[in-house]
Write a structure and sequence with these properties.
Elements lengths: L1 H28 L5 E6 L1 E16 L3 E4 L5 E6 L6 E2 L4 E5 L2 H36 L5 H34 L1 E3 L4 E3 L9 E2 L7 E4 L4 E8 H6 L8 E6 L8 E8 L9 E8 L11 E18 L4 E3 L2 E7 L4 E13 L2 E6 L6 E5 L9 E2 L1 E4 L15
Parallel strand pairs: 1-22
Antiparallel strand pairs: 1-20, 2-11, 2-15, 3-10, 4-6, 4-9, 5-8, 6-7, 8-10, 11-14, 12-13, 12-15, 13-14, 15-19, 16-17, 17-18, 18-19, 18-21
Length: 379
């Protein structure tokens, strides 16, 4: 019996020593706390922007048609080139109109000579009337002849002015500065007054940018008035929004078919970068926020319908903090609730934090690291 007791004691001793050794090995193999990048939240005055899709339109678009009929004698421009206001684009055969002008000049000269004769006869009749050498009836006839001759001169002068205008209109000029389109009629073809389309001209500097907002977004902009409101504009291939325009028009009603409100911005275009019909990206300011709390978007995690971040406390332990996120500004996310100035947020290595309260090794970094030069977008 003593032998059995001795064996049991020995077995218990061996088991105890083995357990101590296992716990020692486990303690020696426990991993150190993970290293994570931690940044202090930013509290800055920011401007929140809404993003839209817009289209470029020309402030002035002209469908050029002749004011007189005739055969095209010359096409005086290159298709697609920039033209100036008053530049001659087409010349209609001027010879018929030059002949009409000369005839009108001759008619005016003849009418003036007749007026001179009638004026002389009327003056002589007045003298004779005073000496009672002619009758009152004859005097009235000569006075009427003078008045008729005067009217004839005025009609001839008007006909001459009309002939001069017709001759002037044989040179079809651009009414605006802009870019000319394709010549729809070439030399030798007949152009009919006020009907034949010759070409189109669209103004290119400045240009208008039209964009629409939803009714909900329009309500957010309800206090916005057109004028002096900056907008940021970019082409689809641009990085960010490198061009600056100014809001100059807000429609007075919501489109009942689309439920949108139309806005218009004016944009300088001296280099011709923008062409009417292009689609562009537009940002318009929504509001200014004072001391907005900003964090890197990578720091914000999602748990079903909730968002949260890990905040490192003074004991270097990662605490879970539920947050309410807003819009993105300059590559950072606005946090409306859940964080305050001075909080240290895990921005890189969040996947290493397996549970709230886990110990970490924080490495201090800048919250803006990797976001310099980025522009605002909306969620």
């Amino acid at each position: 019996m003593m032998l059995g007791i001795t064996i049991t004691v020995l077995m218990l001793a061996v088991a105890f020593l083995a357990g101590c050794d296992a716990r020692g090995q486990a303690a020696e193999s426990a991993p150190p706390p993970p290293q994570v990048d931690v940044a202090e939240v930013l509290a800055e005055d920011v401007t929140l922007w809404n993003r839209y899709t817009g289209r470029v339109a020309a402030p002035e678009t002209v469908a050029l048609r002749p004011r007189v009929s005739g055969y095209i004698d010359k096409v005086a421009f290159e298709e697609g080139e920039l033209v100036q206001q008053g530049q001659v684009l087409f010349v209609i055969d001027q010879r018929p109109y030059q002949a009409r002008l000369r005839a009108a000049e001759a008619d005016l000269a003849h009418a003036r000579s007749q007026l001179a004769l009638a004026t002389t006869e009327a003056a002589r009749a007045r003298q004779l009337m005073e000496s009672r050498a002619i009758s009152r009836e004859e005097f009235d006839q000569r006075s009427a002849s003078q008045a008729s001759a005067q009217a004839t001169v005025q009609a001839a002068a008007a006909a001459l002015e009309s002939a001069q205008l017709d001759l002037h209109y044989t040179e079809v000029r651009s009414p605006v500065s802009g870019r000319a389109g394709r010549a729809a009629v070439t030399r030798g073809n007949l152009a009919s007054a006020d009907s034949t389309l010759l070409t189109t001209v669209v103004s290119v500097d400045p240009v208008h940018v039209y964009f629409e907002s939803t009714q909900q977004t329009a309500n957010e902009h309800a206090a916005t008035d057109a004028g002096n409101i900056p907008v940021r504009i970019g082409l689809p291939g641009d990085e960010g929004f490198p061009y600056r325009g100014e809001l100059d028009f807000i429609d007075n009603r919501v489109n009942s078919e689309t439920g949108t409100l139309q806005y218009r911005a004016v944009l300088a275009n001296p280099d011709g970068v923008f062409r009417p019909g292009q689609f562009v990206r537009v940002e318009m300011p929504l509001e200014s926020a004072r001391h907005a709390v900003l964090v890197d978007q990578k720091a914000v995690l999602t748990d079903q319908d909730r968002r949260y971040v890990y905040v490192v406390n003074q004991d270097n332990r990662a605490e879970r903090r539920n947050v309410i996120a807003g819009r993105r500004v300059d590559g950072l996310l606005v946090i409306r609730e859940g964080l305050s100035s001075g909080d240290q947020v895990v921005v890189n290595g969040v996947q290493k934090v397996f549970y709230p309260g886990m110990e970490v090794v924080p490495q201090r970094v800048s919250m803006r690291a990797g976001h310099e030069g980025q522009l605002a977008v909306t969620p």
